[in-house]
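Ticket #4471: structure export looks truncated?
Reporter: QA, pipeline team
Priority: medium

Steps to reproduce: submit the single chain below to the structure queue and open the exported record.
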Amino acid sequence: MAVELLSAEQLRAHADALGELLVDAVEGGASVGFLAGLDRAAAARWWRDRAPDVAAGRLATWVVRDGERLAGTVSLAYADKANARHRAELVKLLVRRGARGRGLGRSLLARAEREAARSGVTLLLLDTQTDSPAASLYASAGWTPLGVVPDHAADPRGVLRPTTFFYKRLHG
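Actual output as written to the record:
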């Protein structure tokens, strides 16, 4: 399974497929910033709107395929402040429901961590819904829970849920 880094042009070209992946995650209950009823056109537009950040080097996005179909994605959002260049945020780790359980999420996570370290990042941050499958993945991959904020974000149904913040120190 090859994990591929997308250029801004490739992200635009794959925006529809990435949108389908995002809709699948939301329909499956993932708390990734969107509410139930997200339509594919809005999801694809959200991805297309990320292309300028990819082009400017503020965002790196990787995908993994299941045959020809996109099966997962992860992004790193690099800090833009001078005193924060050593850190990045892991965002939008998504794996299509039908492709879960085969290590794709773990592969995407490992790739993002390696590439972050290679680029000089020494600290990664993320947040995820407490007690979610994603929280278990991060804990098992050596991420340290920093704390829990109650009612931090709504799940796709609009119900407020606690969020766990994690960090991971990297060594180049």
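Status: closed, not a bug. The export was complete when the record was re-opened. Leaving a note from the reviewer for reference: The chain has one domain: 3-169.
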